[in-house]
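Lab notebook, page 48
Experiment: co-folding of the full assembly
Goal: obtain a model of how the components sit together before planning crosslinking
Operator: M.T.
Materials (sequences as entered):
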Amino acid sequence: MILPALPILLPLFTIILLLAVFRRRALQPWIGFASSTFQLILSLWLAVLVKKEGILVLHTGNWLAPFGITLVIDSFSSFMLVLSGIISFSIGIYSIPAIDKQRQSFFFYPMMHALLMGVNGAFVTGDVFNMYVWFEVMLMSSFVLISLGGEKKQLNGAVKYVTLNLVSSMFFLAGIGLLYGKTGTLNMADLAVKLADGGNSILINTSAVLLFVAFSIKAAVFPFFFWLPASYHTPPITITALFAGLLTKVGVYAMIRFYTLFFVQDQLFWHPLFLWIGGFTMVVGVLTAASQFDIRRILSFHIISQIGYMIMGLGIFTVAGIAGAIFYMAHNIIAKTNTFLVAGLINRVTGSYDLKSIGGLYKNYPFLAVLFIIPAFGLAGIPPLSGFFGKLILISAGFEAGKYFISFVALGVGLFTLFSMVKIWNEAFWKESPAIADNQPHHKNKMPLGMVIPVVFLGLITLFMGFAVKPILDFAMSASAQLLNPTEYINAVLSKRIP
Amino acid sequence: METLLAFVIGLLYSVGVYLILRRSIVKLILGIIALGHATNLLLFVAGGLIKGKPQFADLPEHTVLQNATDPLPQALILTAIVIGFGITAFFLVLMYRFFKITGTEDLDELKEGTSS
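Observation: model returned without errors.
Model output:
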């Protein structure tokens, strides 16, 4: 069955096509847009298929597991693929007016789809080393995207971004090498089998720690997050939005996958550690955000803060806790990308990201205010938007599991998130515009339709996730149950094993 | 052999870390390269070193190769080397652009706000 390879093959063919016609700039956005739309449809179809028929497995080149590279789509993967499809679709539309002609003709679209290929690859792979390769595909294209255009500020951010991500790749690779040395396998399902019955779990601790550090750097978790706010505000906002939605979450995805499937021996050590790190990530992210005045920087620090909630869900380690983490991830990918896209709209109409130099947007652009308030209050957790339910599920799971301290921390952090969002709201929307105070003539800039549509689309999803919590939560619950009871996954991958 | 290589790997890691912490972007790149090589060697040693037993041999059928070297870590290293090569190439170009635009290779001179 070739189905699990499609989320990788589709962007690959798109890249080839885009490179073949790269001299015709006018065509590039439309090919990119068509491919993004296909990707969204494909991912939805795959999700329905996984729901109906169970886990999809592809043994590439007909090399059966554990020898060949296996591609696996279970509920969690399919859920993440849908999110990646949604982001791809929105960025596909948004980039048409938002990315300048220069960047469009210099490989923005091929690189965007290369990034999506890496992200999708990391979601579907069932092989540890293969995941490293997909991480590299994703990183390589993100390096190009972050430095594309070569402005001074961008290069400055790019150097930090590239260096720290490369260091994390080294950790990842070293962890894989030691893991292979001790177990003799790289297939995730096979690793789960081998590590479950082995009494020598102490031997894999080095790998577990190295991989944890690697994913922590990628996911921008508490002591390793410094590259993110140093680099995310430098590229054009479309690229930042794409990164903010997907890149860190791939790190979280890998962490959830590894620490539910095969690094499950030393739970007494890992789960309290996850809770502590999750707590610190939330608090540090949200407090540093409160002191910023650049919209993009506030939002970047919020990414960090919200990663903390997902790590907390992993640390609770009950079906409800991990389901909460998955639901929260979905909410966060959509709302976070959306707030960045709205920040792009704000920049389009005012020409600035600095809260001190803009204002009066509510009076002049009431529609923009509505567009902002949906994702922003969604992030802050105001009912009935998606963030409220994400936090509710996580915190109630925390109380059920008896993790009171972290649950109270999560509640408090929600309040501070609200503070930051209200700060943007006050400064950008309610305050008198400084330009008016200086008696400068105000000229109304138009918001391009192509930039408004994806914002509306993502806003509607945030609303939908708030009003239709039940079906999405049910899906997250089933994905979480599948993660915590990996027998189904293992059997699906290893059923055709040679005796 | 393992002991010797363990020291080499340790040395390469420390060289890499030292170089990354320098301010010059050229040394930063050299540090990344050293770290990459250290990791590749680590993979090589972790896969197990067996002397004089090639992993592919012209054997009669139905005999099993005993105690041969595992070829997979070497395949992994090959992949990692190729990826590392691509990344180094990219980083060198980035350095070149960086130098052309900013006129410096000292990372500390580029703090935000101080640069024009």
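Interpretation: The mean pLDDT of chain A is 88.
Next step: discuss with group before ordering constructs.
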